[in-house]
Amino acid sequence: MWTSMPGRICIFPWRDVLIRTNGDVLFCCHMGKPLGNLREKSFREIWNSPLAQEIRECIVRGQLSSVCRTPSCPVREVMGGKNVSGQFDTIK
Asked: For 16-77, where are the E strands, in sequence order?
C-alpha cells in the first residue's frame, strides 16, 4: 500500500500548522486527527506533543504515521514517485 515513502519527506510537520476555529491544531488539512486543541493545551505543548513527535519520527524513518494515512493525503501521489506541487522535498 503506501506505508513507506523512500527518498521523499513531507515537510509539513517541521514547517506548517493549521489552526481550526474550534482550536484544533493540525500539521495539514489532510490529517485524520488533530494534534491537540488550543483550548486545552498551549501551542508549545501541542507542537512538541508525543503525537507530533511520533509523526515526525515516522517521516524520518521513511514511513507514514497512521494519522497521515487518510485518503485525501497527497503523500499517496508521492508514493507513486511524483512530487506534488513542491510540498515534499527529496532526501539527499
From this structure: 18-19, 24-26, 36-37
> What does the chain come to in residues?
92
For the record, the C-alpha cell of 59 comes out as: 517521516
Name the DSSP letter for residue 89. E
Give 4-17 pLDDT, tens digit per residue: 555 567 888 999 89
Extents of the domains making up the chain: 8-77
Q: In this structure, what C-alpha cell is assigned to residue 19?
A: 489552526
In one-letter notation, the amino acid at residue 90 is T
> Helix (H, G, I), strand (E, B), or coil: what is residue 62?
coil
pTM for the whole structure: 0.72
